[in-house]
Amino acid sequence: MSAVDVHAVVTGRADAPAVILSNSLGSTHAMWDAQVTALEEHFRVVRYDTRGHGVSPVPAGPYTIDDLADDLVGVLDRYGIARAHVVGLSLGGATAMRVAARNPERVDRLALFCTAAKFDPEQAWVDRATLVRAEGTGAVAPAVVQRWFSPGWYADHPEEHAYYQAMIADTPVEGYAGCCDAIGVLDLRPDLAGIAAPTLVVAGADDQATPPAWLQVIADGIPEARLLVVPDSAHLAPAEQPDTITPALIEHLLNQQEQS
User: What Cα–Cα distance (Å) separates residue 90 from each residue in 4, 113, 201, 256?
Assistant: First the structure.
């Protein structure tokens, strides 16, 4: 399948290096809202909705990780960006890894949040895709949102539950299920050793969807990658702990850690 013209939003400094942000399954580009203002001070910020999410086109599934990688590269091409920092969470992190391995000339620095090189077990993704195709994305929204956040944050922010559940429930059925198809079969472990971009790997200490051990596999596999485990955070760690994560991300993208 060729790239589709996904919906993108570009803000920040037009004369600055570009950073592109890739969203998780069931979210939109709005999942990065907590990071955007700070990133805009330093970068040309490109956010987009993964195919089948938000207001992006919904081609027939199943999708593959290479389809999603093609879409990301297509966004860079659309805006004339030869090389960018690439940041992704969960499915977006897998997309970012695939681009970094397959199109290394397009990636400057890489940041991977709450993701995996292989999302086990495959049958769970087959089952989720089947459920969504039968009953809609609303059927999975409450349980998914509960896994997105640590128990303490979830209990203390009841007003946020409806917002994130609606984000998932509004995701087109075939877009969500098609991405489940891609997640179930992907295995990026052979790609890790070939990723040359300086990489920050971030895990939520309480993340049950992509546990810290899965992020350790990525950090061990990518040469000289750095792992940060963030306390009191789960799968949507950038939304839950922006005061910790946003400065760490900017430090990494500006190369301040290595220069200090």
Answer: 20, 6, 11, 25
Burial category of 203 from C-beta neighbours within 10 Å (exposed 0-12, middle 13-18, buried 19 and up): buried
pTM tops 0.70: yes
How far is it, in rounded angstroms, from Cα 132 to Cα 4?
Answer: 22
Give residue-wise pLDDT tens across range 140-183: 999 999 999 999 999 999 989 899 999 999 999 999 999 999 99
Choose the CATH number for 8-259 among 3.40.50.720, 1.10.230.10, 3.40.50.1820, 1.10.3210.10.
3.40.50.1820
At a CB cut-off of 8 Å and minimum separation 6, what does 52 contact? 58, 59, 61, 63, 171, 172, 174, 175, 176, 178, 179
Both tokens of residue 180? 């489940």
Q: Could you tell me which residues are beta bridge partners of residue 87?
A: 21, 111
What DSSP string describes the chain? -------EEEEE-TTSPEEEEEPPTT--GGGGHHHHHHHHTTSEEEEEPPTTSTTS----S---HHHHHHHHHHHHHHTT-SSEEEEEETHHHHHHHHHHHH-GGGEEEEEEES--SS-S-HHHHHHHHHHHHHH-GGGTHHHHHHHHS-HHHHHH-HHHHHHHHHHHHTS-HHHHHHHHHHHHH---GGGGGG--S-EEEEEETT-SSS-HHHHHHHHHHSTT-EEEEETT--TTHHHH-HHHHHHHHHHHHTTHHHH-
Inter-axis angle of helices 33-40 and 242-253, nearest 10: 40
Locate the domains of the chain by residue range.
8-259
pLDDT mean over 109-113: 98
